[in-house]
Amino acid sequence: MEKLADRAAKTALFDQFARIGKALGSAVRLELLDLLAQGERTVEDLAGAASLPLSTASAHLQTLKRARLVSTRRSGTRIYYSLAGDDVARLYVRLRAVAQSHLPDIEAARRAHLGLTGAEPDAAVEEIGRDELLRRVRDEQVMVLDVRPAPEYAHGHIPAAVSIPMEELSDRLAELPAGRTIVAYCRGRYCVFAYDAVRLLRARGYPAARLADGMLEWRLAGLPVDTSAA
């Protein structure tokens, strides 16, 4: 039988582990991590992107900061938040993968979020993998289209990608090349912007596909990231 002191020390250790679990135990905080995986943001930017009151966003960010999952820097009167490290991004990606593997309700929620209705398969929005994208870019077969908000593009994007945020795409179709397949990507595997972009492009007669995942997975794979202006 464990000694009382040994048991207390073990409980104290597991309490420390639990700090991370508690910080992750919120849909709002997971969405904030998802946004921060694209690059550092102010609390005002994050509140707007997540449709949160400023005070609510700030409170959730403080919870993440106490768990050392995010860090901050000050510039003048503004405070910028960022992920504390790539290990936090990998933890977030792994959490999603475990949920997808073990929770039966995830698939219905995923399909609803991505606009996959009824029996429509994922393949209805054609996807290509990272290796295939790199091959087609080398062979000049595709145009790579980043449909994330412009500030996220500025924090880092796939080299040679063109920035047209999803909300502007329908008004900027004239900027797209004729006769070349357009490969759209956004934040990550569960980001809806790329799905919506491919649907819109195909409806307007453009050959289009989406990257199977997104910028988060691209970064974690150690692939080149460009930070030059659009």
From TrEMBL:
Pfam families, per database record: HTH_5, Rhodanese
Superkingdom, taxonomy of origin: Bacteria
Any GO molecular function: DNA-binding transcription factor activity
PROSITE patterns: HTH_ARSR_2, RHODANESE_3
Keyword Cell inner membrane (UniProt): no
Record keyword Hydrolase present: no
Keywords: DNA-binding, Transcription, Transcription regulation
Residue ranges of domain Rhodanese in the record: 138-227
Name the record gives this protein: Transcriptional regulator
Organism: Pseudonocardia asaccharolytica DSM 44247 = NBRC 16224
